[in-house]
């Protein structure tokens, strides 16, 4: 009877790591303190209570750590869950913090590149403090992430997460420089999406497995899991750009298409309606092109 009522309760993954997420929030606030007041207020902007975002990446990483850590009983009295290596968990929490700092740095730079007005339901940092401070705050967060990464003293993990930054920059550049042929290619979309969204999640999942002392085989499985999850996350994000509201998105809807970005729903619609190729080739360069595309979705 207990089991059937438990099965009906929807499982909230965030609640499983709620305590650790609140520790992470406090640690991040302490880690992003800067010496110069203007930089300090810019760097802490998206770490303040209420504007921390969904914390999707740290949640996934903490759950993955729970799944992969081997409980090491120190004595018979510890039972199966006793003696969990505390230091190991702290190092994995550090990966969750580094991942979130890299993510927020990328959001700050992205909003400058897109000239975005809003993010997480408030004014984007560039709209409140200007482009220059937003870029510097993003650089500052990356530096703090590097210092935290170095403290782990694991060259493979350093290399994984440093490469992610290159991937973020590569994905963004691919998006900015798309030719009309690339714009209608699903292969190009998936490669760009791996770089922009999935690489951070997959490589940080792999880092969690490596720190847990898992085999190379398991760390590849952790990577694959993160890659697929990251791609799925971006596909849902693409759909929400069409179906969400300003309140649910924390920013205006239809922002991708208005920036001429071809996302998954458009690519799928193009397969069914070849007429869409023409507006996609033009890069949705007029508001009427946006309306034409919306009619087919
Ligand atoms: C400086 C690291 C760095 C990168 C520069 C601008 C850029 C290169 C990359 C942009 C990468 C980017 C913004 C990808 C989009 C990923 C994505 C799905 C963002 C939204 O994630 P959510 O919904 O956001 O998890 P919250 O606000 O909940 O954290």
TrEMBL record:
Protein name: Solanesyl-diphosphate synthase 1, mitochondrial-like isoform X1
Subcellular location: Mitochondrion
Taxonomic superkingdom: Eukaryota
Record bears the keyword Aminoacyl-tRNA synthetase: no
Keyword Protein biosynthesis: no
Endpoints of the signal sequence: none
UniProt record similarity statement: Belongs to the FPP/GGPP synthase family.
Keywords: Isoprene biosynthesis, Magnesium, Metal-binding, Mitochondrion, Transferase
Taxonomic classification: Eukaryota, Viridiplantae, Streptophyta, Embryophyta, Tracheophyta
GO CC terms, sorted: mitochondrion; transferase complex
Coarse class of the protein's main subcellular location: mitochondrion
Annotated organism of origin: Phoenix dactylifera (Date palm)
Cofactor(s) annotated in UniProt: Mg(2+)
A single GO BP: ubiquinone biosynthetic process
Span of the entire protein shown here: 69 to 365 of 419
Molecular function as annotated in GO: metal ion binding; prenyltransferase activity
């Amino acid at each position: 009877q207990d089991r059937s009522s438990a099965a009906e309760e929807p499982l909230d993954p965030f609640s499983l790591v709620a305590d650790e997420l609140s520790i992470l929030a406090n640690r991040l606030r302490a880690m992003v303190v800067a010496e110069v007041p203007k930089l300090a207020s810019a760097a802490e902007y998206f770490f303040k209570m209420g504007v921390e975002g969904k914390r999707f990446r740290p949640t996934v990483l903490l759950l993955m750590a729970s799944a992969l850590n081997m409980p090491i009983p120190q004595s018979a009295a510890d039972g199966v869950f006793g003696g969990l290596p505390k230091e190991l968990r702290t190092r994995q929490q550090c990966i969750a913090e580094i991942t979130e700092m890299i993510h927020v740095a990328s959001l700050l730079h992205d909003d400058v590149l897109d000239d975005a007005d809003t993010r997480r339901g408030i004014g984007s940092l560039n709209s409140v403090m200007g482009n220059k401070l937003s870029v510097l705050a993003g650089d500052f967060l990356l530096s703090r992430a590097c210092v935290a990464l170095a403290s782990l003293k694991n060259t493979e993990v350093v290399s994984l997460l440093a490469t992610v930054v290159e991937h973020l920059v590569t994905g963004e550049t691919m998006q900015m420089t798309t030719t009309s042929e690339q714009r209608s290619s699903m292969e190009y979309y998936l490669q760009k999406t791996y770089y922009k969204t999935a690489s951070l999640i997959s490589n940080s999942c792999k880092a969690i497995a490596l720190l847990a002392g898992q085999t190379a085989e398991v760390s590849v499985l952790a990577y694959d899991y993160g890659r697929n999850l990251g791609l799925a996350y971006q596909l849902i994000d693409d759909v929400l750009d069409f179906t969400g509201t300003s309140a649910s998105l924390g920013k205006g809807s239809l922002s991708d298409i208005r920036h001429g970005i071809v996302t998954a729903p458009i690519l799928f619609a193009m397969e069914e309606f070849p007429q869409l190729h023409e507006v996609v080739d033009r890069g949705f360069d007029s508001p009427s092109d946006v309306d034409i595309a919306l009619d087919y979705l």
